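Checked the freezer inventory, then went back to the computational side. Two predictions to log before the end of the day. The first one is the construct we discussed on Monday; recording sequence and tokens without edits.
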Amino acid sequence: MTSLSSVLIVDDEPAVRQLMSRWAASAGMSAHAAGSALEALEILDERQYDLAIVDINMPGKNGLWLADEMCREHPGTAVVLATAYTELLDGRAAPPPVADLMLKPFSRQRFLQAMDRGREWHDRARAEVEYHRQLLDETSRRALALRTLVNAERARGIDEAETLLGRLAQQLPDVRSHCDRVSEQSARLARALDLDDKTVTEVAWAGLLHDVGKLAIPESLLTSKTRLRPGELAIVRRQAEIGAGILGDTANLRDVAPLVRAVHERFGGGGTPGGLSGAAIPLASRIVSVVDAYDAMINDCSYRGPLDPSSAAAGLLRSTPGQFDPEVVITFLVMIGRP
């Protein structure tokens, strides 16, 4: 089990801070104290701590706020919450991910038990980091192997798109079928938007190749029957960027790369990978994004069944304009008879 050497005790009562500091010192830990959430953040900016014991009910910013801040800014510190007022936890949409929750007043033995749970938290966190590193390494290896294959096949005179789509059909047949549908519907939508033939062709290619990056994602993530953990989801969400990188290395498909890269940007901003918004997102990408989402909703995925078309249309409207271009969505819904 991981050894803990330092603890930050955050409580607005000096006597409580002193008592817990003595308990921590008797357990061989270096203890430091803060009287408020803001003071604790200032200390954490200067030094990393293995563990923080945080009182929830403090004046000003409370311990729940501090725990959320630490989760974002100091994820390497295990947090143990302490409170005599459990009602303060009521009504929270999601509690912060903490190692333990102690109810005041608590004994020295309970305090030491919280130390053990902090060690267990560190063990789990270390295992998660290693698992995430392995997934990243596998993704990189698979992307490199795919680039090598495309180059080798091109040298033999085989079309690059044929190689990628053939591998997609072989490795992920459901994804290939999805790409075919998205390409066809995206081209229809481009025509409904009165775009010229050249742009319609670009849109069709972007739809056909928008998921090619999934070839580099470990199948265990793509076929998971449960919702992915945050680290797993972060890797899956890189698939458009990975696919764009693969396409950018080709001789004949590199013009499609920026369109694929931007498929998961959000019209209102905050998407990936570039945080583009509005007209800065290529129109072809905005078109494919809408069709991609609708097709995914009305077909089976690994962890849920298909939605009916009306529910899928409502889902698009709820996500407009935050995620989708309003003009593209309305034109698409009119086109498929779901205004």
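The second is the one RB wanted added to the comparison set:
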Amino acid sequence: MKAVHVTAPGKFEFIDMPAPQLEPGKVLIRPQLISICGSDWPTVNHGRDWIPFPLNPGQPGHEVIAEVVASDAPGLEVGDKVLDIGYSGSARELLLRSPAEVLKLPAQPSAEELVCAQPLGVVLRAAQRWPSILGKSAVVIGQGAIGQFFTMLLKQQGAGPIITLDLEDGRLMTSKKMGATHTINSGKEDAIQAVKDLTGGQGADFVIEAVGTDPTYNMVKDLVRMEGLVQCFGMPKQRSTGLFLWELMMRNPMVIMTQRGKREDFQLALDMIGSGQAYVKPLMSHSFPITEIATAFQMAESRADNAMKITMQCTW
């Protein structure tokens, strides 16, 4: 079978490797659509100090819609469309999964929208750990897909004002559709002062970091009020960081860190997208065949052409 093999930063090869065989109680699935996560492109394009090259065949790819092609698992039939939550090497023609690693899709909407259930599920895991945010002022740093999901959930849970920060005006325009009451381009204005002006000089009750860089994490200490709430979600690009933890600790905040979802979170995300409660269509921007994976990953990093959520069709 065919698989993607990343041999060095930004270097993609298509290789042949042995296909998995069906095992008792499991299913074989064929990926049909893979979405690029914001944690994927830094690993692939530049590398991380704890992930050596070459990557394992099939990496990256953990936001996946697939079709069951063989099954020895009750309730899963050949032809069923599923969300793959197996988190391992999905850029291959075939994957062996246990029933716990897949979720059947609702009939609607499109696969491009339903694949968002994977990242949304992780955001929902974070939100289920929050105290009540009803009427609380909130800031979301970063308005990529993850930041947009946070903005949507803040609105649904009654937070306000909801202030979003990003360097791209297009993403800030989208965040208005997702629930932001105020948007700040932090490359064009003093975001910290703007947030203080909007919160009576106190800082926000709740600050969410959804980027993962030292400069954005270091903004948190200046954005959150004394004894406020902080959600750390952006994946750091490297292990050793230059975070100003002393200054943040002096704000005496409650800090929540989240990076993984559970099966029930992904099911909830599918239900919300399927029912229209989570409207993700504004986030879908570009689609490529998987044979153009290098171009797709370059666009994910550059954000060219207002790129937001990029998918790849698995047409090998």
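For RB: The chain has a mean pLDDT of 95. The first helix runs from residue 40 to 45. Let me know if you want it refolded.
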